[in-house]
Design goal:
Largest sheet: 6 strands, parallel
Radius of gyration: 34 Å
Helix content: 40-55%
CATH class of the largest domain: Alpha Beta
Number of helices: 13
Bound molecules: zinc ion
Distance between the termini: 132 Å
CATH architecture of the largest domain: Alpha-Beta Barrel
Structural class: alpha/beta
């Protein structure tokens, strides 16, 4: 019986032993499967919701397509459309009599914010300096309308005009040098003149830039930054602007999209004035301090915004040559036209101009 049992037992026992082993094996498989599964889920979760920058970077590096798919939406940086008010420098009016030369005024760009320079001893100087206004430096296309033609100066004429300035001892300066002269009474070079170019056209890089370099002249270029951001045909690119800035030329904002800035609300003006100032700063390495009104249009709200954002000056399209601290946000300019003959150009630069 015992033997029977023992004989009999081994069979079921042997069967149950085999069954047990199989069960153990299956359980083991399940366990391994579960562990692997958990690992996978853990990785997927980690990359889908990256807690740190490292795991964010890791997620982009991981080759698994599922992980890349889940990580994609969080990895695409979307620029916020609202400029943060923390970037607005606060203006603290100072009556400090002596002002040390500001590092931002030198040719070496300074990343630090600089306050509006105020007149030494409360006395500012008004100077009579021609600020020339150029747009296109190219031959207008055959189908150009009268406005396009009027905004153009041919490369040959531009070169002749620059040659005239060089031959007659003029010294092109930038607006930073002008501000120092007006507020700090620093001496200006002989026969100072300011050369401005509005709108950021491609020919400013292709034609004007090499001619200015040839004469060692500094130019000030007012840029509607969104045209550059969107690679608009016929406009300069950021690498071109960076190249010219590195050569010493000045780049200042001309709004973001070149709209009529009158009768706008605060948020709109911040978007159109602070926005391009910061965009340019990111490309040229320092905060630009001068503004050119699109089509010369502005109202009191625009003037207040420029002061609030610590701009040091702004140019209009109105004719004139008086540049002082009091009228720093409405500095006039002298337009050089397509049909401006050299004799008339000479009258303009010697301030023998009339409206
Ligand atoms: Zn313009």
């Amino acid at each position: 019986m015992r033997q029977n049992l023992s004989n009999h037992d081994p069979t079921p026992e042997g069967g149950s032993g085999l069954f047990g082993s199989l069960l153990l094996f299956i359980v083991l498989l399940f366990f391994i499967g579960a562990v692997l599964n958990q690992d996978e889920r853990h990785t997927a979760v980690a990359s889908a919701n990256p807690p740190t920058t490292e795991s964010n970077v890791l997620a982009t590096l991981l080759p698994t397509p599922t992980i890349a798919d889940t990580a994609t939406p969080t990895n695409t940086p979307t620029p916020t459309q609202t400029p943060t008010p923390t970037n607005t420098p606060t203006i603290t009016p100072t009556s400090t009599p002596s002002i040390t030369p500001n590092p931002a005024w030198t040719a070496t760009p300074s990343p630090t914010a600089s306050p509006l320079p105020t007149p030494v001893d409360g006395i500012s100087t008004t100077v009579a300096i021609p600020v020339l206004m150029y747009h296109y430096i190219s031959v207008p296309p055959e189908d150009a309308d009268e406005y396009r033609i009027d905004l153009s100066v041919t490369p040959a004429n531009f070169r002749t005009q620059m040659q005239y300035l060089a031959d007659n001892g003029f010294t092109p300066i930038d607006f930073y040098t002008l501000s120092r002269a007006i507020t700090n009474h620093e001496l200006l070079p002989p026969q100072p003149i300011i050369l401005t170019f509005d709108d950021g056209y491609l020919d400013n890089y292709e034609i004007a830039f090499p001619i200015l370099q040839e004469f060692g002249f500094v130019g000030t270029f007012f840029i509607p930054t969104e045209f550059i951001d969107k690679n608009r045909v016929g406009y300069m690119s950021w690498p071109m602007i960076e190249t010219m800035a590195a050569a010493g030329h000045r780049f200042e904002p001309h709004s973001r999209t070149h709209p009529d800035l009158r009768n706008r609300d605060e948020a709109y003006l911040i978007w159109e004035i602070l926005g391009p100032q910061e965009t340019l700063a990111a490309h040229i390495g320092y905060t630009p301090r001068y503004f050119s009104y699109p089509s010369g249009r502005y109202d009191d709200a625009v003037l207040e915004m420029l002061q609030r954002l610590d701009f040091w000056g702004a140019v209009t399209t109105a004719g004139g040559d008086q540049l002082g601290f009091e009228n720093r946000y409405t500095w006039p300019r002298l337009r050089i036209r397509y049909d401006t003959p050299l004799g008339e150009f000479a009258d303009v630069v010697y301030l023998r101009w009339d409206e």
